[in-house]
Write a structure and sequence with these properties.
- By secondary structure, the chain is an alpha+beta fold.
- The protein is built from twelve helices and eight strands.
- The radius of gyration is 22 Å and the shape is globular.
Length: 406
């Protein structure tokens, strides 16, 4: 599939025909919430692939539909009218899949992408470590070459959905003699392989979404290296940008206000919808989410024009976090303790609480708010960068994370 194919504009009849096809499929299969249900998400995605509506812009030889970005835009628009079914696949398909497509070898793409697109396999991203969170380049997980394999040792943490994933994309240090942003490589790792231990982290909302992952002499085939040896920071940066676009432009087919709708329902249930102050607060959230949707649509339009994700993706990601902060303030004012604790017999309270607690993740996942502001200041606004004194120091000599230097 060529760039020209991607940029093809559909005529009105073609667009309407595809729109009707999407709506017909979704009316039958998008019948519940797949946000927290990996089995439902996989089943839905499999049916989507069977219908030729999965991986719309990816080449057919890699399991995609070989269609245009205009097709993807139409699908996103129509999907906004139906319950979201694939929230649990955002990392697998919104982050891992485009990295495989951009940096994978021909053999890797033909082997792994079809199963990812159809959700026969689920993938996770493995970056953060106990001593390398926002400063991911301080990672200490090691990958050492041993003949036709790499031997992986170390620990990752906060790995979303690792416990239900088949593969992970991991970055590891392959040369500690180089500065911390160099000497890093990216790999595919089989999470069912010997030497891989996954420990779920229990969350306050009762979920087990995140995990610790330990590697003890886990072996990776040599040809599962993604991109260039010792140049993994380039791929990692690209993956983070895909992540910020995926988070910041989720559901970017049209304008939507999901948090406003939750707060409106809570205000109605508590009898506060007629309160002038509450109504003013609700309209602020409504306006903020509308603005976020417009920013997300612009980001998607840039992708449609063939641009790779850039630092502008941090704008939508950061604004989503800001909305989360405001959402929590308003929810506490409207529902009080009911915004964080609920009666199981009250499903609306359940929805409010889950959204309330999960909104906190938005300030951390994909890079903290502080990191996003640094990226926007440096790479969008052109402001001076923070002073860095370790850019040329070999990693083995740094006192970072749990490493105390030689």
């Amino acid at each position: 599939m060529t760039a020209a194919t991607l940029s093809t504009t559909l005529n009105p009849d073609e667009a309407e025909e595809f729109r009707a096809r999407c709506r017909e499929f979704l009316a039958v299969h998008s019948v519940g919430k797949g946000r927290r249900d990996i089995a439902a998400a996989k089943e839905f995605q499999g049916k989507l692939a069977e219908a030729g509506l999965a991986g719309l812009t990816y080449a057919e030889e890699y399991g995609g539909a070989g269609l245009t970005l205009e097709h993807e835009r139409i699908y996103r628009q129509v999907a906004q009218e139906f319950p979201a079914m694939t929230g649990e696949l955002v990392i697998s398909q919104g982050m891992c899949l485009p990295v495989l497509n951009e940096f994978g070898t021909e053999e890797q793409k033909r082997r792994f992408m079809p199963d990812n697109i159809s959700a026969r396999t689920v993938w996770c991203q493995m970056f953060s470590e106990p001593g390398a969170g926002s400063d991911v380049a301080s990672l200490q997980t090691r990958a050492d070459r041993d003949g036709d394999e790499w031997i992986l040792n170390g620990q990752k943490v906060w790995t979303t959905l690792a416990h239900v994933s088949d593969y992970g994309i991991v970055i590891a240090r392959t040369d500690p003699e180089q500065p911390k942003h160099a000497g890093i490589s990216m790999f595919i790792v089989d999470l069912k392989a010997p030497g891989v231990e996954i420990r779920p982290i229990h969350q306050i909302d009762g979920g087990r979404h995140f995990n610790e992952v330990f590697f003890t002499d886990a072996r990776i085939p040599a040809d599962w290296l993604i991109g260039e040896y010792n140049n993994g920071w380039r791929q990692a940066t690209a993956m983070l940008m895909y992540e910020r676009v995926a988070i910041g432009s989720m559901g970017a087919g049209s304008i939507s206000q999901p948090m406003y709708e939750i707060l409106r329902d809570a205000a109605e249930s508590s009898g506060k919808l007629g309160d002038a102050v509450v109504r003013d607060q609700l309209m602020k959230i409504y306006a903020m989410e509308t603005t976020k949707s417009l920013v997300a649509m612009r980001t998607r339009a840039e992708l449609k024009a063939g641009k790779a994700p850039g630092p502008g993706g941090s704008l939508g990601k950061l604004f989503g976090s800001v909305i989360g902060w405001r959402f929590r303030e308003i929810a506490l004012e409207i529902a009080g303790p009911g915004s964080i604790a609920w009666d199981p017999a009250n499903p609306k309270g359940d929805n409010l609480m889950i959204t309330m607690l999960n909104s906190i993740q938005a300030a951390i996942a994909g890079g903290t708010d502080e990191i996003q502001r640094n990226i926007i200041g440096d790479r969008v606004l052109g402001l001076p960068r923070d002073i860095s004194v370790d850019t040329k120091v070999p990693f083995k000599d740094l006192k970072v994370g749990t490493q105390r230097g030689s």
